[in-house]
Amino acid sequence: MNKYITLLKNTSIFAIGTFGAKVLTFLMMPFYTRVLTTEDFGVVDLIVNTANFIIPIVTICIADAILRYGLDRAVNKKDVFSTGILVLICGYLIFLLFIPIFLCIPIISNYTLLIYVFILTSSLNSICSQFVRARGFIKLYAISGILNTALMIISNLILLLCFNLGINGYVLSIIIADFLTSMFLFWIAGLKKYLKFQRISKSIAKAMVIFSLPLIPTTLFWWVTNLSDRYLVTYMIGADANGLYSAAYKIPTFITMLAGIVLQAWKISSVEEDNSADRARFYTNVFESYQSVIYLAASFIIILIKPITSILVSQDFYESWRFVPFLMMSVVFQCFASFLSNIYMVVKKNKMSMVTTLISAVVNVVLNLIFIPLWGVNGAAFATFISCFVLFITRVFNTQQFIRFNMKLGKVTINSILLLAQALIMIAELPYWVIYEIVLCAVVTV
Length: 446
Known about the structure:
This protein is mostly helical. The protein is 80% helix and 0% strand.
């Protein structure tokens, strides 16, 4: 099958699975806001984010190695899956030693058991789903995503509505969904036959661990980039300002979700075409289409930012639209940087992904300290934009030594300037700004 058709087909399947799950979750928001208090929401968010922050450390990001080596035709798939499960077991046993520390942390100490079970089931589900994806069962992977969301919703209805378990019920719903989804994949994909704990190839296991280790600090640096501005806004300006800033973050997530769908399919295609004779041309064509979609989506969202904000948030948060344009710019370059990070995965050079992410994180923190006192909340948004731009630029130059392809940087530059002009005009609310925005959006489209 033509590689472009394969990429498009996989993208379509991932789109169905992703959007299906997102829609189901979105429809449950009125229910959650009725059965959980604002304080409950805060604790739930803390529990889930704490667990998701710890998972890459406990599993040493082995799920990424499972995808990469699972796609490698020369590697025994039993070695890949068994190594992933073995790493999870070893990492989790070590993690159990830290229970006394969690019991000493206020707020989450009462939920230590929930956090530990959450991490185990979520990690297992991630390992199983990534292996299924690597084996080429794309439809099954997409179905499992929808199934996971459906199971979580059913569990929520029972535990929150019928038994009124509150925070415990919400987190238990995620645990139940992840566990049952893992069992579903074990059964349908026959994962049991890929398990062996004797005579695992030491060379494959070692290679997978070496591949994964640099991804741990990379994940932590991403956490710094994405959350440091929120902490600094709260510290320097106040919690109310951070509330507006957090609300502004909701809208750019549409772009990251769109890019994420493409990148899931792109990860598979980029590995499969690693030794292709026209690999450079393939990368060029895909990136050109990818950046066009991202720029168009960002341009149209900036024009419609006010009505979109009024629909998504309450009147008290309406002013958050002013922070969206710069955050939209940051997401654009974050999406481009994510595209290039696939090159590190393909050539198994994840150390450079770590280095470039570290540079971006440092730039983000430093610029936040400079711009927030000067420009307030929009200073944080601008700092995030510049840090993501720096991440993209460093990866542009760095990845060319591994896979050289034409990124059409002239086109990227023009579109970036047009989008930045849109952002500045929208923030300043210049007279006749609607006309300027329409004209600029038309030029981007052309």
